[in-house]
Amino acid sequence: MGITFRKLHPYVGAEVSPIDLRAVHDGATLEQLRAGMDQYGVLVFRKQPFTDAEQLAFAQRFDGVLHAKPGAAAMGANRFNNDALADISNVDNNGKILPAEDRKRQYSLGNQLWHTDASFQNPAGRYSTLSARVIPPVNANTEFADMRQAYDELDEAMRQRIAALTVHHSIAYSRSLLGFEFSQGEQNILKGAIHPLVRVNPRTGRKAVYLASHAQRIMEMPVPEGRLLLYELTLRATQQHLIYSHQWRDGDFVIWDNLATMHRATIFDDAKYVRELRRVTTIDVPLGKAAAAA
Known about the structure:
The protein is of the alpha+beta class. It has one domain (about 5-280): Clavaminate synthase-like (Double-stranded beta-helix, 4-Layer Sandwich). Helix content is about 25%, strand content about 25%. The protein has nine helices and 15 strands. Strands 1-2-3-13-5-15-4 form a seven-stranded mixed beta sheet, covered by helices on one side. A three-stranded antiparallel beta sheet has the order 12-6-14. A three-stranded antiparallel beta sheet has the order 8-7-11. Helix 1 links the parallel strand 2 and strand 3. The protein is globular, with a radius of gyration of 18 Å. Residues about 290-294 have low confidence and may be disordered.
């Protein structure tokens, strides 16, 4: 099956020619899509009427093992009773808009911070798939920053400075920035994970700065100095010329590479308009080792 990619941004993002991903099972087409991810970091597919089961199955075909330890799982089961299917919405179990004081809504506000999916776990997240089920009639974009190009634009002194550094990522930390409070039991579950500050795509060898709002501290530096460096790198990585802003349409399906990008949701009136999306993320395990990790 031949597919084509239409570039949406100078560095990151491409729209894929009409294709029904639910029907894609052959290895050759899946490999074409992975090659597209290597080049563009974010792929956009239109008119993809996925069911939950179909989205889960596609993610497994595409990259193997699913991430099933989201931060929200520490607070209890989601409304789908499947932690591999993340509920990116502003509604309750009955489809009603969540009130401002609802704990799930307050937790979900963290999606508006720049982040990388599952960086607080080890293994971290690799590919994320996000399916648009209900889209509000106002702009509720998702922005993606190209962390590969951000690395390429660093001067050599900065590249050498960060080459061997590691970072502790904690979703409890990122949510605390918004004043969200976890119980002691929840904090015991959400201990975080340590990852290199510079990560390498194993398929292409291309380097990227690995950042997120979850990035709590640089392990090799005093906390204040390390956080200032993380802040500086985040400023550089989220310059406007590095950002693709995706404006959602009904039926959109977007895949992104968490080794190549950082992303965030933008603000909309979530007390007035319903938005429902489903996210499935794979874990960063090479395909050859996926069976052993399952």
